[in-house]
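Thread: sanity check for a docking pose with flavin-adenine dinucleotide

Original post by kr_44:
Hi all, I'm comparing my docking run against an independent structure prediction. Below are the sequence and the ligand SMILES. Could someone generate the full complex and paste the C-alpha cells? I mainly care about where the ligand ends up relative to the chain.
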Amino acid sequence: MHDVVILGAGMAGMACARRLMLRGVRPLVIAPGHDVASRGETLSFRAEPVLDELGWMDLLDADTALPCAGRYSLWGSAALRRDDQQEQSGWHVDRARLEARMTATLDGVARLRGEARRLSHAPTHVTIDLADGSSIDTKQVIDCTGRAAVTAGSQAPLRRNDRLVATYCSFALDDDSDMLAATLVEAVQDGWWYMTAMPGGRSLLCFFTDSDLLPAGLRKDAGLWAQMVSRTTATAARLDSLGLDPGNVELSFAAANTAAQVTMVEPRVIRAGDAATAQDPLGSNGLATALWSGLQAADSVMALRDDDDSVAARYEQRFLEGIESFLATQHAMYAAERRFSDAPFWQRRHASPVFTPPD
Ligand SMILES: Cc1cc2nc3c(=O)[nH]c(=O)nc-3n(C[C@H](O)[C@H](O)[C@H](O)COP(=O)(O)OP(=O)(O)OC[C@H]3O[C@@H](n4cnc5c(N)ncnc54)[C@H](O)[C@@H]3O)c2cc1C
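Reply from moderator J.T.:
Ran it for you. Here is the predicted complex with flavin-adenine dinucleotide included:
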C-alpha cells in the first residue's frame, strides 16, 4: 500500500512531488512517458515565490527559459500598443526541457509509466486501475492529470465556461534572427492570435477560437492557415519581417477552454493544476497556478496525515476565490475589445462570466 500517489507529471505533479520530497515523504508518481507538447507557454512572474520555495529558480536558464521582453497587443483598437503590466518579468519556457530538469531534482521519488483509468474507494484506501490492467492501492491520491482530470465524474462535475481551442505551429528561426522575446497578441473577428519567442531559437504562432468557429478543413490544409494569417495586421507583418512562411507548417490542436471543478478536496483525493481548474490562456496563469496548487496540495496531504484537515480546507477556499478573481479579470480583458461586437466569439465573452451548468 502506498502512502501518497501523484497522478500526472506536469508542473503541478512535479511541484507536488518536490514539496513532498523536501518534507521527507516519497510519493509514487504515475504518468505516461510521452513528450510534453511545445505550446510556447509563458511562465508568469507570479510563479517566482513557489519556484524559490522549491529550490527551482536555478532551473530557469538559457536552455529552458527566455526572460520576457513585454507584451505588444492589437486589442481594443487598430493601434499596436505595448502593455506594461503584463508578463514583464516572466519567462518564455521550453516546457519539455524545464520539466526534464525538474524531474532530475526528484531524488528517490519513484515514477511509474502508466495511465490511470479509474479510481475506486474502500474505507481505508483508494484503488487506482491502470490502462495496462494492473492496479495500485494508496491512502491518498493527488490528481495532477491536467485537463484529463481522471478523478472528475458524476460526483465531481466539471464546470465549463466556453469552447476555446488552440491551433498552433512552431518555426525554427534563422541563426541571425533578432526576434524580440516579446509576446504579440492580436484580436480578430473570430478570436485572437498569439505569437511568441521560445528558447532554442524557435517561435510559436497560435490562434484561439471556439471549436464551432474553427474553419472546416483547417486540420488538413495549411494553405487555409496561411490565408487566415494574411487577414491579420501585426501578426502577418511580424512573420513577414522574420521571413517565416505560415503556409509551410505542421498544425497542432489543443483544448484551451476554461473548466473548473466544484471541489478541490474530497476524501482521499486532492486535485491540483488543470485537473482542478483549467484556464483560458489569455491571462498566462496556468503554469503558475499549477506550481502553486501542486505545492498547496502537498502541504494539504502532509497535514491530513496528522488528521488536520484545515490546510486542505484553506487550499480549496483560496483556489475557489482565485477562480472567481481569474474569471473577473478574463471578463475585463475580453470586454476591452469592442470592435467585433457582432461576432459570436466576442458576444459570448461579453456576456456575464458565469459558468454554464455541467454537461
Ligand atoms: C495552447 C495553450 C497555450 C497555453 N499558454 C500558456 C501560457 O502562456 N502561460 C501559462 O501559464 N499557461 C499556459 N497554458 C496552460 C498551461 O499549459 C497549463 O495550465 C499547465 O500546463 C497545467 O499544468 P498541469 O501540471 O496541471 O497539467 P499538464 O501539464 O497537462 O500535465 C498533466 C500530466 O498528467 C499526465 N496524465 C494525463 N492523463 C493521465 C492519466 N490518465 N494517468 C496518469 N497521468 C496522466 C500527463 O501525461 C501529464 O504528465 C496554455 C495552454 C494551452 C492549451
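The mean pLDDT is 90. Hope that helps with the comparison, let us know if your pose agrees.
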